[in-house]
Amino acid sequence: MEKMRYDVVVVGGRVGGSTASLFASKNGLDVLMVEKNQEIGTPVQCAEATSSSTFKTLEMKPSPKYVCTEIKGADVYSPDGNHGHLEGGYAEGFILERKVFDKQLAIESAKAGTDIMVKTTVKNPIHKNGKISGVVAEHMGHAIEIEADLVVAADGIESQVAKMAGLNTHQTPKSLCSCAQYEMVGVECDPNYLQFYFGEKIAPGGYVWIFPKGDNIANVGVGVRSDTGTAYSFLKKFTANLNATPVELNMGGVPVYGPVDKTYADGLMVVGDAAGQVEPFTGGGIHVTAHCARIAGEVAAEAIEKGNTSGNFLKKYEKLWKKEVGQDLKQSLKYRKIMDRLSDEEMNILAKFLKEQDLESISKMSVLGFVRDYPQFLKLLKEIL
Amino acid sequence: MKISEEQCGYCGACIAVCPQNVLELSGMKIITHSGCENCMLCRVVCPVGAINNGKNEV
Hints:
The structure holds 2 protein chains of 2 kinds. Chain A has helices spanning 15-26, 52-58, 98-111, 161-164, 231-239, 286-306, 311-341, 344-356, 364-373, 378-384, and strands spanning 2-11, 31-34, 49-50, 67-71, 73-77, 83-87, 93-96, 115-117, 120-128, 131-139, 142-153, 176-185, 193-197, 207-214, 217-224, 245-255, 264-265, 268-270. By secondary structure, chain A is of the alpha/beta class. In chain A, strand 17 and strand 18 form a beta hairpin. In chain A, 50% of the residues are buried. The model of chain A has no long low-confidence stretch (mean pLDDT 95). By secondary structure, chain B is α+β, with helices and mostly antiparallel strands. Chain B has helices at residues 13-17, 41-45; strands at 2-3, 23-26, 29-32, 51-52. The mean pLDDT of chain B is 92. The chains are: A alpha/beta, B alpha+beta. At the A-B interface, strand 12, helix 5 and strand 16 of A face helix 1, strand 2 and helix 2 of B.
């Protein structure tokens, strides 16, 4: 068997993998990144929206090469069709061309010194003295033993590496949002605003999104958590009246119930979808993953420098990402759980109430008045406010 | 449990929820290893309905 030796082997070449390897390489490590697909960036499994914090984390500019549109706000539709408009703040960001963005990120990583192998599948982790010390991979029918002091698992929701190392990264139909998306041409929409549609009939347990990519091209997608129909069937239904035509069909599962319990082991760190590093309320994962993966890359450098890649040392990775993004994820999960309890009717009532408020400063009086009219929301509002 | 190769988009959602961990994504194909207990969680999360219980259901 062919043998290789690296400080770090990163499994997966999308946002999590490229970011972790970029920062590990920048900090002087010898890094190999393996990607199972033959082309980095495809197939796309993403609605492609992200916030400006992603670029700050990556120390990259939002270049028109991979940014389609700049987002200034969002239009949100409750089940009864009522519409609320959000301007700026949390709703601001960018729509990416992930195929180009992911490849560019891999290129940045390669420029920093990362070696990359494509069309290479990891078969097993190598265990030595109870510690992960590399992986066995397969490329074009040949097995390769890649020895490494550290493994970063950035291998997505289908992550096998973390599972094989004994970590519980399992999802359930409740925690995994099943998504289908068309990139469509002829979607009449404002290129600077996202659209969200909620309701049991159009997207049970999730929502429909229209994310504009400019020139009336948009990602139109549906996320569901339900056994009443597939994401694809709801997508077909929603797009039937759009008078637009698809140029791409994407699908995938998004973990929307918060991070997995443990994201490190002896010789291993888990990042991205594999670690559930996604905002539960929105399902947005790019900025969270980039943030956590950068920490993983930096902790990797520290671990190698100190000659200590034990779980006890790598715990630092989890401590850091929890400190920096953990609170946001927790808050987002709280909103997700509240949302999950609402019926369409309750969503309509709540949306109507929130629309009449200045979200920055909801007054106590208005809340009291609302709860008097709709006592069923008392417990819920207590949790939010 | 049966996966329709024609419909499968090899997204890996089924793998993420398989409690027995018997599914594997190999290239553009999902391989089912032995040990499936037909819990059908994979069918619930499949975005395109490529999985059925193998009993000729529609």
